[in-house]
Amino acid sequence: MRIRDIFESFNNIAVYGMSRHLEKAAFTVPSYMKKQEYKVIPINPSVDSIMKEQAYPDIMSVPDNIEILLVFRPASEAVDIVKKAIERKNAKGDIKVIWLQLGIFNDEAKELAEENGIEFVQDKCMYVEHKEVYA
Question: I need a labelling partner for 111 at 20 to 30 A (CA). Which of 26, 82, 85, 118 fits?
Fold first, then answer.
């Protein structure tokens, strides 16, 4: 699946590790996507809300349909995050794409996701990719 297809096929983005700090990419990238009319769902156990959106402590507690799981956590956590995403996909039938933000890559996580029918993007900035596709 091409990057353009991801942007055109899916609207709900759960952001694993979303920050409330305005200067961090884990805030600015989801903020940009929200301005592009994507639904942004923060996943962060240490806050109640970010950008006036309810935050959830983990993947399983999100009541909304998750289409893209955008990850802002260290690469060393990627396999565990993918395992949780697969558990969620098996339980709820959502999560179509896992996207590791620029600078985050883990081939073991990629293989695990793809074996379970989840598209996988790694080491790419969603903001930069969106701007490139729609420039």
Answer: 26
Among all chains, which residue has been given the structure tokens 């409330």? Answer: 20
The span from the CA of 38 to the CA of 62, in Å, is: 16
- CATH code: domain of residue 16: 3.40.50.720
Q: What is the pTM of this model?
A: 0.97
Q: Cα–Cα distance between 51 and 111 in angstroms, integer?
A: 33
Distance in angstroms (rounded) separating the CA atoms of residues 123 and 105: 5
For 35-85, what is each residue's pLDDT tens digit? 999 999 999 999 999 999 999 999 999 999 999 999 999 999 999 999 999
C-beta of residue 86 within 8 angstroms of C-beta of residue 116: yes
